[in-house]
Amino acid sequence: MNQQGHMASYGQPQPGYQGYHQQQLAYDNQHMTGVPPPQYGPYNGPVQGYQQTAVPQGPLRPVPGSAPTSVPPSTTAQQPVYNQYGQGDVHNGPAVPEQMQRVPQSQQYMPGNTLHSGSQPMPYQQYAPSLSHAQQLPNQMAHMQITGVSSNSASPVSQGYGPPASRPPAATSLPPVGPAAYSAAPQNIPSSTPQDNSLPQHPFPGQPSPVSTFSSPPTSIGLTGVIHPPSVGMQRPPTMHGQPLPGQPPSGPYPPQPNHRSLGPQPGMPGAIPGAPTQGFQMHPAPNQGFVPQQNGSFAQMRAPQPNYAAPSTGAPNYSSQPPPQQKRLDPDSIPSPIQVIEDDKSNRGSEPFSTAVRGQVPPLVTTDFVVKDQGNASPRFVRCATYNIPCTSDMAKQCQVPLTTVIKPLATLPADEAHPFIVDHGETGPIRCNRCKAYMCPYMQFIEGGRRFQCAFCSCVTEVLPHYFQHLDHTGKRMDYYDRPELSLGSYEFLATVDYCKNNKFPNPPAFIFMIDVSYNALKSGLVHLLCEELKTLLDFLPREGNAEESAIRVGFVTYNKVLHFYNVKSSLAQPQMMVVSDVADMFVPLLDGFLVNVNESRAVINSLLEQIPEMFGDTRETETVFGPVIQAGLEALKAAECAGKLFIFHSTLPLAEAPGKLKNRDDKKLINTDKEKTLFQPQTSFYNNLAKECVAQGCCVDLFLFPNQYVDVATLGLVTYQTGGSIYKYTYFQAQADGERFLNDLHRDVRKVIGFDAVMRVRTSTGIRATDFFGSFYMSNTTDVELAALDCDKTITVEFKHDDKLNEDSGAQIQCALLYTSCSGQRRLRIHNLSLNCCTQLADLYRNCETDTLINFFVKLAYRAVLNNSTKTVRESLINQSAQILACYRKNCASPSSAGQSGSLDHFRGRLAVNRIAMELQSQTGQLILPECMKLLPVYLNCVLKSDILQPGGDVSTDDRAYIRHLIASMDVSETNVFFYPRVLPVHKMDVDGDDFPVAVRCSEERLSKGGIYLLENGLNLFIWVGMSTQHDLIQSIFNVQSFGQIDSGMATLPQLDNPYSKKLRSMVDVIRAQRPRFMKLLIVKQEDKMEVLFKHFLMEDKSSNGGASYVDFLCHMHKEIRQLLS
Ligand SMILES: [Zn+2]
User: Fold this and answer.
1) Whole-angstrom Cα distance, residue 1115 to residue 1095?
2) Across 625-649, average pLDDT
3) Which of 46, 249, 486, 626 could form a disulfide with 490 if both were Cys (CB 3.0 to 4.6 A apart)?
4) What is the pTM of this model?
5) Distance from residue 385's CA to the centre of ligand 1 (Å)
């Protein structure tokens, strides 16, 4: 084996590797120029296959055993069969119920089950150079260029980068803080929304569509037509959540104040107008009971009470230290409340399953827990739209400015009680498709001529039905096998792809995972390397598996690096791992192939031995410099050589300053903020990584990046390849294994185990009239239609914008089909199809009635965060405000006037009327009312959260890296993630119902909603706080923190003590549940009222004025009102 030979001379590439070198791109090529031919030409139809990629020459050969192991599709062309069936659904399943099985899925991530740090201690194997392996580690060590401490990093020991670990000083750059915040989702679906049960079964276009529009007026809210009604007397009893503490004295030094209580105007109470009768909320003297329902002001009066809100209590001077009330301020209680909207949706729509049978039906909010039944359209878990009624003409669309957009999460994880997409096998001819536009068979295709042909719902072309697919039609024109075929009756399903859909017309090899570990000084010092190596020993047992497969088909490889790279041979036949050092990082090559990528079970002993040795080998390193570009190149070359797709897990700690391709310099400059040059902070500092990303995508090489920086590392540049290959970035600033290990290991576990597809291409087809024009997310595009993803996992979404290219028809509606071609974790080539049909409208009122603000915000965020690459943040903010104002002004003008109300016969615009208190009324009389569409009444509050986010309006305490990091995360967030990220969830812990499963109803995200006698949990998907009020009952403090008083609470605790009482148990279980709901592990921070950490906490109270100049909700609403008036006048 020539491998031995290579090992002798690490410093230089071997002649035999020349084949590799020529594959390297010239790095000065500007990316995007010279766009390569689309990788998947055939995607549009199994054409000639993929562009041939150069196969490495030279001594490299595919690893033995790497032959395709994927199962070719069944070739029983005459009898297409489903490989798998989802469980339980007779309608769609096969005739034989006992064959029903869940579709093979890669191993599911099981929340709560993720941490496996208790790994079995591996038998310690002292590394001993075995004579039979002359090239083993110690020998290799000699080749390592341990250069000692470099001059510019004099004494790493004394690095003074901020406080260690994850508790930097208050108000300085906290870790991955994603400051902006926000939550809930809006929009009130009329309770009369048609639900599935009563619906006929053939609601697709082309088929009789019984219910396609909502005709009944909304009924969920009492409509009186009164705009500013007195609200006195309208209270409903509050919902009681939680129960009083045991032994809670009814009175004491600090009576329990679960809520503020509203009294007369208090100094500092916004909204209170001195001397003015408070119309918006009610005096409520119920002292110790808390739970004063919010009188929901006069906005949409007669709404259910605002749970949990109340004003500051008597005796307890307003907790808030806000300035005295300004004159002419809106009462915060009278303006639309996210909590109210969320709670209304839960109670209106949470109980019934959501059937997707009806075209254009707006699903429940992402904050509502509901069950989905796929009856012909994709579940909202896969596809969500900003509007479910598309205007028929582009003129209408321009007039209203509501973006036509969908957020697609193709591989979303479904809850256990919902069927996973079935896999359909159409035999060796491949999936049935339209001859012209290549759309895949779906419920919208109409069979004609007795079933011999079908007409495409997307392009109207008529296609012959292949003999093996022929089926007679019933008297309604429906195929007799309608319910037996997922592709005829369901919104989402998968096709097995044939070899025509594979690169080089060859079924793919199973993918590989390569772990690439920074072993420079910082990584060792922080405990990262020890922790990681220990964890990998057990984590490797949890690689994604196909269905019930006994073991994962994924092979693994290991690389460590600092200024040079170390490859490891972990072939099962070896007694000890072998290391090979490549120090010529300028021209990266892989010094071995055989033994680099291995099956975990076969090589377990060698791998464990390696993982034992790595921390020791580098334990004394003084090397502080690292490379980065060559690391990705090495992984890429290894995958190329093995002819497979895969993922690189890179664990990296510093700015790559060492001389190598992709070397970076520190160019951080916060003085650029708010200047025209601010955008450069988000741009990569070199085009090197753009080019590298392109190569990675072509190979199906996804890069996940785990960063452990103690200072600026240029996330904007380092993250670029990750960004364009569909990977994930994790960032642990000031990482210390002790303090941050839990978060890192949980993230790592979830990341390694999650459902993922490789080497993917997504195409979105639409019916005539609209087309997909823009895409947002972590991917690469080399043409205007194909979204190329080196990998796509279950957490990633792609937001798509559509534009008109013709008129749409109200009768036929608009259809969208998203097709994702990918390689599964076992190497099976598949297509996942999602179909969605929408209504089209000629009345703008219909559009405004069928909107979803959460999805709209998701789109706006992605639009804005991309725009900062080329525009100043000020410009971006202004354009967001402008578009939103136009949306609302158009409603005001066309849908909210009495005349248009009469025409549409609907009263729903009344519901959105922003009723106002006395001062606001004056404002209104001079200027006209602010009237918001019901489904968009939260647009202002959420928009404000976006505008004051750290990307668009950063405070001085946010680091450049954190901004780049957040920008990256947001790009692939789904609607529920952006929702809670921008408007965080604030749960009153003191109101927990310790006997039930429910969470207490959230309070609005504002300081004035917090009681100093309460404890609150705040989360936004990335951050998790428990805030403790100074006057919290001692009993409650004892029950939760196991100390006797507020003063004794240790705010440095990383976990809550495990106490055997219902409060402790319930709170810890809430924390667990919340963590399991989010894709990233949230570290818990305890914040005591008036503690210095409180500054950080307040950063997330999004309805308040922010320290970086962001407007309060009330102020912003007034501003929007002004903008709208200007547009109308
Ligand atoms: Zn077609």
Assistant:
1) 21
2) 97
3) 486
4) 0.74
5) 23
